[in-house]
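Predict the holo structure. Ligand: adenosine-5'-diphosphate.
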Amino acid sequence: MALVSVKDLHKSFGELEVLKGIDLEVEAGEVVAIIGRSGSGKSTFLRCLNQLEHHDWGTIQLADQRLDGTSMTPGELSQNVGMVFQSFNLFPHKSVIDNVMLAPVVVKQTPKSEARRIAEEVLAKVGMSDKIDSYPAQLSGGQQQRVAIARALAMNPKVLLCDEATSALDPELVGEVLRVLEDLAKEGMTLILVTHEMKFARDVSHRVVFMHQGRIHESGPPETLFTRPQTPELAQFIASVV
Amino acid sequence: MTDFTTWDIVRNLLLAARWTVVLSLIAFIGGAAVGLVLTLLRMGGLRPVRWLVRGYVDLFQGTPLLMQLFLAYFGAAVLGFDVSAWTAASVALTLFTSAFLCDIWRGCVEAVPSGQWQAARVLGLNYLQSMRHVILPQALRLAVPPTVGFSVQVIKGTALASVIGFVELTKAGTMLNNATFEPFTIFTFVALGYFILCYPLSRYARYLERRLYGAGIR
Ligand SMILES: Nc1ncnc2c1ncn2[C@@H]1O[C@H](COP(=O)(O)OP(=O)(O)O)[C@@H](O)[C@H]1O
Ligand SMILES: [Mg+2]
């Protein structure tokens, strides 16, 4: 059974239909890269997956649980689906360790000492152990994004969503974040990432999904998708980004 | 009637200035408490509640404080409540202050980037948890300078309580003037009294503002 199962997902903003029926199944441990032009609905799709946006039609299942509607509280949802934003969105008034500990303590009511242990563990995983007492403003963009990844991991989600996690970074900082994501992929984390890093999509993902005008236009393993695109839209898109 | 020495004048004004300070503190503390509740309702309450709060804020911002004092004092009498000048002035100034602080604070809460709400939400925090742990601490930093700045308006606003017979700095000045006919001297001292109360606060507000923007919140 698929870990994430999306059926016939529709979403409009007023008159503008942004998602026009998305079907997608993601297995546990799978890494899915979503590519596509700006405005094709990639972010909206991810935001529906963690209910930051409420879709108009269709269903989203996580394992055997309905994730949409009122069936899950935000607290439960956060223990299933983590998210990393393009703009990091760390809490500027909290130190690195407090950023990471906040949700376990407040949402899961994990005892402080245990939460700290978890936070140190996930921060070690993203290579930020030496900065636990720093504040976000004292970190580079790449470091901030790694902390944001650790913050999401601290809730031990089943799926991690990344919306252009490296797009706001200076080119020399992209690598350190991609390496962290690659490590997660190798550990078997289920990842759904919107990305403009085609090399990363090709090397790390198990499947690439090309979104075009609110639909999944084409999808498949990276080697076939990138070398033998079936539609002119994808061929054109690939030509425009490499 | 020149049996009042300058020292008598100053002493009487100083005694009355106590009540300016006390009334300002009541208005400010009461106004902050009511304003905080209003801000939370305005931001997160149900739609009709939000409209009510907005109406309240518009009402108090859109009418002169003097009228609010008259209504609190004489209006209460018409309705059969026997309120003292103390009560009327405290109530009117508290409501007035709460409306302005609610508006200032709403602006500060809204100035926290929406990405902060989203990050909190994605981590599973509900509305109140997000407010408490993520939004308010950041809004608070933004709010301190304009709040301190507004306290100056509250102090000056207490002068209007003199018209309903509340004896504070301004009323004391008027009474002394009636007894001595030395308006220039007396009102110079009265003005000086307000200045001594207000100037440090506005300087402090400016200092806080510079520090906040100098440091850069993000
Ligand atoms: N909150 C919103 N309100 C109205 N329109 C939106 C909103 N969010 C996204 N859109 C529109 O939906 C379309 C798809 O946006 P998005 O999902 O961000 O695309 P992508 O991430 O692929 O660039 C765009 O036309 C965008 O303007
Ligand atoms: Mg996007």
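The two ends of chain A are 36 Å apart (CA to CA). The pocket of magnesium ion (ligand 2) is lined by residues A 42-43 (CB under 6 Å).
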